[in-house]
Amino acid sequence: MFTFETGSGFWNPLVWIIIFVVAFLIGYILRSFGKRSYKEGTEQTKSFLSGNEEYDKEHMQIKSSNLYWGFTESFSWLYSILKKLHTGNASDYIVWFVVVLGLFLLAGVML
Amino acid sequence: MSILDTFVAHAPALIVAIPLLGAFLVQLVGRLHEKAKVVFALLTILLTNCFLYLLTYDVFTNGIRTYIFGNADLTLPVVRILFEVDAMSIYMALISTTLILVAFIFSWVYMKDNTGLDKFYTLMLLLTAGMLGMVFTGDIFNFFVFLEITGISSAALVAFWVHKAEAVEAGFKYILISAIGALFVLFAIALLYGQYDALNIAVLAQSIQFTFLDKIALVILLVSLAMKAGLFPMHMWLPDSYSRAPAPVTIGLVAATLASFYGVLRVIFSLYGGIYSGTDLALLSTLTSTKFMGSLLIGLALLAILVGVIMALRQTDLKRLIAFAAVAEIGYMFLGIGTWMAAKTVHVDPDGIATAISILPYGNLALQGGIFHLFNDAFDIGLLFLVAGVIFFVTKERSLDNLSGLARHMKATTIFFIIGLCAVAGLPPLNGFASKLLLYESTFQLNPILGIVAIVGSILLLAVFVKVFYAAFMGPDLIKTNVHKEPRSMIIAMGILAAVIIIIGLFPDLFLTHFVEPATDALLNFSSYTNAVLIGGV
After folding, report:
1. Bridge partner list, B139
2. What is the complex's ipTM, to 2 decimals?
3. What residue segments make up the domains of chain A, in order of their start?
């Protein structure tokens, strides 16, 4: 009932769940070995930023548009192409329809 | 005949008629009381679902059911429309009605402050009737009529927030794409009617000779419906429309888009099933074009996956981001069809003479994966759109740049988002993994690069939604407006979708055996579809 045959392999979600539960238990046991005597709000719980002052949480939040900056910057050439494709102009949407129609006509009718 | 048998016998007609009638009655009921129209619309869709469950049991037990409107005898003039419901139709109808039911529950509070709610429910019920008609009809012209009903009601719903310029623009784009797609579909139908003097899909399927005009009709039907299903590079209307519509409308649009995808399946496997599913050596001449078209579909599907996720990665508007992810998901479904077409092969003897044509086993596996993914996409993307709807309802913000720390206020929504995130990215043990696993394995056997691109697409999808999770739910509490908890009706709506996602994730084999395989077999078994009409004497 749980085993999912894929032709050349299989998948059993029950095994995955058991692994999750075991991993959680291991983590929980390790956590229980931790020190309970730390003092909140002191140096013990403060982030260490190479000796620099820690800003307020509000100023530390990375905005969504800055996330994956490295990826988007590296692929800026690709994004500039894709941006040109997505003009938002309804006439261009129809042009793409005509292009694909032409391609399929070539494949389906000429061959 | 018991009353239950009578209900089952008339269920194909009632399932379309109830929302159609309800769409007009809701205007009258709405005059009684403000809440009455919401209750009435909900009851209408519940009743439709009840009849659909009855029909589901019947079709899965007894096979294809046909229903004739008009002249039952084949005496001239034959003026009639025929519904033909097989396992694939049921599979698609279950997706559509469940999504619409969830949309109605969600809209209970979401839409309560809007004016013109009677029009909203009328259009939503018309959309439901249109989609159900598309999946039940066995008549190609009738399919066009329902396609138009779906398109017009969808366009009006996209522009429902008529005071917002972007919504009107999105509605205009939708109706333009929809009308052009439908006109081309009509042109293709005219080509077929002109040659064979028939509109019934089974009759046409039996008659098609694959002439030059048949090929043109096929291509036009395929490309027009693929545009309405949002295949790259004809997907550009999709982020515009999905992102500007109210959240309950958006999941209605997801269902409508998938109904067009269903149209693609019907064209390939039923209308032209004799050519594509056939393994007769006489079809040897069509093999090159079949494989080439399959390769084209695979190419566009891969581009859809990559462009969808790469564009999603850059978006800051949450609904637009999910819409681009939906484009990628549609790519996975087309990848399944393309792989099936490309898996058709010819066997030759040592002298180089063709002895047989067959579809390699991974082709059918890919098709199963694509059909399984049709269901998963509807529920996963649907859940994420509902989450986006809740966020907008609570914060009035669309931009991820202005959101942060929502997990502190909206714990249920956060959990539902995590479920949607894992499902759409194909993470085990949720439903998306099972269908993608079938697609990975089958496409890998055709060409390892295909499997690799499909996996990379899933990894990027995970990255896309991890970004959303970090930006919207984690971090400091930056929302200045009075953020309140999500209403109960919205939690119920999201809960229904999340429950289905988890159950299918835990029991993928049960779902595959009882729903996906019968649906796939219904498509592949071309002769049973035509024989139900031709030999069945209807």
Report:
1. B200
2. 0.91
3. 1-34
